[in-house]
Amino acid sequence: MNVANTSVPVPQSIEDVEQLVKRLYQPGSPRVITQINERLQQLQLSAEGWQVADALLGSSDRNVRFFAALTFTVKLNNDGATLDAETAQSVQTRLISWLVRLVRDGEGALVTRKLCLTLTTYYLRTPTLWQRPLLHVASSMQNGDALPESSVDTARGMDVAIQNLDVNQIVALLWLSSTVAVEIGRMENNTPGHAQLHNQMEVIVQDASSLMGRAFSQSTNDANAKVKGEALKSFQTWVDYAQPMWPRKPEALQFLRQLVPAAAQCLLDPTLQRDALDSFRDILESYTSFFQPQDMQLLAHLISEHLQPVLLQALQDKDPEGLPYGQMVIAYGAANIQQVVEQPDNAEGSGTIIKLHFDMLKAPGYPGDEDELSIQSIEFWNTYIEYVNDLTFSKDSDDPNPSWFGYARSVLNQTVELLWAKMRTPTNVIGKEWTDAESEAFREFRLDATDLMLSIYVFLGKDMLRQLVELALHSLEAKQWRAVEAALFCLNALADNVLEDEPSEPILATLFGSSLFRDVANFSLNIPSQARRTAIDILGSYGQYIERHAEYLPDTVRFLFASLETGQLANTAAKSIVALCSTCRVSLTSELDGFLQQYQRFLGGPTSDPYTKEKVLGAIAAIVQALRPESAKIRPLLALLENVEKDVQMAKDSAAGGDAEMAELMGVTALTCLASIGKGMQVPEDIPIDIYDEDEQQPGKPNFWDGQEGQAVQQRIMGCFSVLQVLGNNGDAIEAACMVLKSGFAEVEPGPFVLPPSITVSFLQQCSIGTPQLESVLSAACTLITQHSRSDSKRIDAEVDAICQQVASFVHQLRGPSADPGVAQGCTDVLCRLMPHYAHILFGDAAALSSQLQPLLDFTLQAIDGQDPFPKRSAQDLWTKLIKPPVAAMPDDVVTRVNRVVTAYGPQIAQTLIRQIGGLGQRSELDGLCEPLKALITNQPAAKGWLEAALFSEAFPHTSAEVGDAEKRRFLQQLIGLRGDGRKTKDVVRAFYAACRGTVVSYGP
């Protein structure tokens, strides 16, 4: 039946409601429940609503009774606070009476729980204080019907009130107790009414504790197991309530703490054990301090004597039912980490917990597949090593090591070995059966385990390194390649830490001096590809060590180039070749000819693709860079460029033949390879320039790259740009070309890729507003200007002027920053780079761009007033520099012209900033807006008048009625009074912005 399209009248009588529920109710249909509830709420608006809901509870239909309780709940939520004392008393009596009668008659959980919620809602919403709700309801149950609250004998207490109640009545009281704790726990303790309810909970907990104690004391049978299970849930609910509310109220907490021994017995009951494990684990994880020392001793005993055998058997059988037992052990260990670390002689507390954590890692199965506990145990070991490291590094260096120090080292050494064993990859047969989720879980375990090992290395140091190297070598000797791979994987993760530790070098020598890399380079051996891949990664990670020990280079490089020709290893090998050649470039210069020959052989193989070609060319270029003198670089560099030129020609031929797809592929490949060569040819930051080359760097002698041979190489490089003529507007090609240009910008001395500035300018001039990746070209222009703004660089006024002319053309074509925010940001960034050394390009008396100055500045103000964050940020930076120019680096006439422009634009910039601060901008943009605002206040005497005019202008946004003339004046006075104080100005601006947006109550003193 489609209830959404059914016309259902508002019920007028009890019979109507019963028919309504019978007609519409479908179990599990939220839409139907909502419709019924809506109609019942319409009924509640009448004066007879209470009586109708009351009468509905007597219906023979369980669903009707459920909605009757729901009706009471909604009615109390809506009208409870307005009830007078007499009506409130009447409602309370009705609800208790129905709960007592329905529970006595065997009412099910659905209606009973809803009535418990209704009673709790009554307790929370009505103004009449209900002193002891649990005791009142329990006494009424004992009486057989609702008692007046005044008739309840509080002196006898809860123990007497519940002594003759049956199982169903105890369970209903436990539900009511839990509901009270949950609902009041959701209320903040920030109003007098709420505070009173929370204070009253310190009394109610006494009754709740007696109730739970009675439930826990029941003898063992099926009916009582239900009672104990509900008591366990109620216990956890009350503990959850107590955690944030009673941190400094041990008297109230004690009523719950005294239940721990009884609740803990549920851990021994087979029918309750799973629930008990979940409850105690949750408390251990979230509220450790709830348990007192004697509680922890009890739990340790139960784990040792009763849970340990079950867990060990489950681990052996790969039984997933053992998971909650292991989780309990993990939670207990983390919660008692001080005892576990510092009291190794405590057999139950420390000994059992450490042993069980070892057993979890020893258990058969792979993490993420059959073994879930080893993954979760990582959290315990992280807690363990964090505690050990904190204590170790907080003590004075002269202090003796604590007594537990040796034990902790032994524990962590064993942990490392167990983790290593657990990290071994599965065989192909097993791996193929894994789902994606299982494979991902195993990968995450390995990553988490290596993160843990990094923390352990801080404590164990080179002893741990020696341990892992020995495990690798023993496994290598036995040809256990998956074990070798696991050890290398761990060593790879430790590389950064190990390389900082000089005493580690002899240990590394045993690994790199072994047959490892000769063996993995022998592709006739049946070695898992993952082992070879991890060995490749090791070479990239330990390049600094290999650089210092060139004797290991032949084996490692041969292995990498052999791997380059293997499909599964090619990309990883290419990446490590770049890292190794870049780091060890000086030591590899004698191998350069061999590398060039290997590269030519590689080009004819199946693994030659754009990625591998780019990486290997960059690696060889790094070795070329290390050659001395500069003239020695010509021959090998030309050999590299020949490979690029072949791709360029292939792209042109493909385009001529109509194969546009192949033309784009080869053309982009050519330019990315050229960019990679340029990057490889960059002088490393940590290598000083050799000023003693025999044939160059002599006083008065031109630099080699300015000579005929050097210029010929540059012409070859620039010739590769011709491929852009056949690629059309290919964004990837344009971006790669920009990377080629930028590779020379970072150099401080002439070099093959330090191209003339005119090349970058010409590239920009060939672009239009629709050119893909125009942002990259503008970024290259910015970098060029920045590089030629250094004090030791040559000024390029003509080129910068040409760049600005092109930028002005782009701005004119855009007609507003929002048309293309990326290009707008790039154009504004170029203008920013003019300050201070090229400011005369825009502001000099003879500036060719003087006629276009106003459109450019108007464009940047539009950016600040717009919605796009990136051009807005660049424009703010520009105006900050204009308002507060670095006068020492600028000619006087330019400074004067800039000041005139700022004075002319002062009112406009002030209005733009105030509009944004007045509510049009985003909160995240306020700090950026404060920069030009502070500059305006500190550098322009007329700033106060400009800002005042902006605040009272019609253009000021009307975002909140709370900000009037008085608030604006106060804001202005604060700004001017702070005189550009950065932090305080930002605070004042944020407060004013919040007031304008209406997110604060008021804006005033």
TrEMBL record:
The keyword Oxidoreductase does not apply. It comes from the Eukaryota. Pfam families: TPR_TNPO3_IPO13_3rd. One of its GO terms (biological process) is protein import into nucleus. Transmembrane segments: none annotated. InterPro entries: ARM-like, ARM-type_fold, Importin_beta-like_NTR, TPR_TNPO3_IPO13_3rd. It is found in: Nucleus. Keywords: Nucleus, Protein transport, Transport. GO terms for cellular component: cytoplasm; nucleus. Belongs to the importin beta family. This is Importin N-terminal domain-containing protein.
